[in-house]
Here is the input.
Amino acid sequence: MGKLKVGILISGRGSNMAALVEAASDPAFPAEVRCVLSNRPDAKGLEFARERGIPAVLVDHKAHASKAEFEAAVTDALLAHEVDFVCLAGFMRIVSPTFIERWHNRLINIHPSLLPSYKGLHTHERALADGVKLTGCTVHFVRAEMDVGPIVAQAAVPVIAGDTPDSLAARLLKAEHRLYPLALRLIAEGKAKVNGEIVDIASAAVDETASFFSAR
Ligand code: GRF
Here is the structure.
């Protein structure tokens, strides 16, 4: 079976994209990164992709008259690179139902909370304000409602006394960088499959997805 052909959409730093690219540089990884696409010309992640010899594509949302045109250009660019699966990695544009339908069950995202808790922005500030003792990150299939969709994998990290939003974000980011490649690998291996609005994990892979990352 061939590798899953992945396109990664970013808007900025691209550290999760870099983690996926690193993972995919292992010949045994079941997915290959066909292109990295940004909607912003100044996205730092584009440089990283170029340095790695991965096609780095700019589709500037400001150069398009409407969201529909912008998203059509994104899809065209992905198809030009033979992408059949899309990972959102810090892509700061809300994707439309049309785009989500176009990539139905072939579009995943990473979110910095244990969904369904803390959808939306400022997850760390809100988690700290609530005094939660555990937070985490979630890889999920994308649905029309923001930060909702079948959950592929989650990692939990502790909240530690004295944490600031930045210190918590930094701890969590390390877990994100482990979780996103794991989730993509399970999907590419057929061990994580969407079944309605739930992802079924093959019993052989349960131990992997149930890992608890206490990344201090
Ligand atoms: C990450 O925290 C991710 O969970 C969220 O946006 C951030 C992107 O960071 N969706 P990076 O660009 O991958 O470094």
Notes: The mean pLDDT is 95. The CA atoms of residues 97 and 144 lie 5 Å apart. The helical segments are 15-24, 44-51, 67-80, 97-102, 123-130, 165-188, 206-209. Residues 10, 12-17, 89-90, 110-112, 137, 176 surround 5-O-phosphono-beta-D-ribofuranosylamine (CB under 6 Å).
